[in-house]
DNA sequence: GTCTATATTATGATAGAC
DNA sequence: GTCTATCATAATATAGAC
């Protein structure tokens, strides 16, 4: 054994990227306490470290928030884009997108809740010009994502599989209902992906189908 | 004119209760910046006053938050209770409650947004025992309110006017969609109550009716 | 009731050792 | 890369004048 690979301790298997760990810890804190309520010390403590580590990877607290936000948007985009691409009727695509969105809410809820609740909480008027620019870019990402849903509603109206008076309004109420999942959902011990898919399906069915009995 | 009523200046007509003014200013600030982001100086500035005034009426910042929260809940309760009381089918009551709820979201959105976004943002673990007690009482109020909706769903299932697989899930998705109104709605200049009622009706119709075309 | 200080604490951020 | 100070600032809350 003269030529040995660098030894790998058991504790080294988990740690993905160090930077990723910091990001995840921040998302966790932001979800639990909100952006402002979270101190850099809190994030460090969640890592079992001190601020030095956090500041080594992220310039500032807003920067940290921005990265969590961007990651949350990336996750949503990557979940929905395949569904959009695979085609089908408007209703079929909407169903798939809604389900993908809901699963993201459940499985990456630390990030998603930061995204969902944190947007407009962030002070607009008093931020620096650079921060304001980043914020507007992030808001732009959100609009692009919302447009995916809006356009799907329009497609569904066109092909006769969906019936809503106003696609924008429909998009907002749908995403409102689904985003709200981050508020009340928390994973049960022993929960599997199957369970989550089942719950997501039930949620989407309830929302898309409406609450009234068909006469 | 020897017997004169105490003179009333024009500026004295508006001011209701002084305490109410402080509360409303706080709700406005909480909505715009979030709880933590709002300083007591911010609230004072919104009043055109200094902290002294705020602290004269409210012991502390958490106290101020609690009162805003409680007020928001009272508004919702008082809006929905008459609808519950007036009877009708489950579907009819649900429609009325949802519309009343939505109008509250639009017309008292400073309070409602504080309620909606602020609950779990408030740190649970580190609050004092007394604060924790108050928080739990407030959460209790919320549960009572949610139960109004849950029970209406159950009633609607029983009388055949509503069809949902799970009343709790239906309540959550419905309130999610409606609460989300505080995120995107802002009053247009020149908007009247009529406009808001129309919009609320459209929102409720969209949500209750579902998004699919009936075959 | 409202104001003007002021005490106290918490937090974002940095510098420099290891 | 991470830690241990440390600085500077901002915000809660209070005391006491008016």
TrEMBL record, chains A, B:
Descriptive protein name: TetR/AcrR family transcriptional regulator
Domain of life: Bacteria
Ranges for domain HTH tetR-type: 16-76
Keyword DNA-binding among record annotations: yes
Keywords from the named record: DNA-binding, Transcription, Transcription regulation
Source species of the chain: Phreatobacter stygius
rRNA processing among keywords: no
Regions recorded as binding DNA: 39-58
One of the record's GO molecular function terms: transcription cis-regulatory region binding
InterPro entries with a match to the protein in the record: DNA-bd_HTH_TetR-type_CS, Homeodomain-like_sf, HTH-type_TetR-like_transc_reg, HTH_TetR, KstR2_TetR_C, Tet_transcr_reg_TetR-rel_C_sf
